[in-house]
Design a protein that fits this description.
By secondary structure, this protein is mainly α. The protein has one domain: Cytochrome c-like domain (Cytochrome Bc1 Complex, Chain D, domain 2), CATH 1.10.760. Helices cover 65% and strands 0% of the residues.
Amino acid sequence: MKKSLIAFAICLAFSVSAVFAGSGAELFGSKCAKCHGHDGAKTSGASGGVMLKGQSAKDLKAKLMGYKDDTYGGEKKKTMIRAVGKLTDQQIDELAAYLGSQ
């Protein structure tokens, strides 16, 4: 019984992680990949040569939240403010977690 319970808990943890990873991947594919590439390795024209791939989830979340509340970004930040402003905090968490794992 104890082994079954542990196995169930492990499966549940992996399935929950997969759901969040899928959500972040889907969001990235539909909202971000056009400018940032399919894996976040493309730099957009306004980014100054900075790519998303390789950044930590914590840093990405801070930047996305900064765009959302208009406290982050350079002079060409309006596109990101419009894009991120439509996202919920949960979606931002999912995107940051997905990108931070790339």
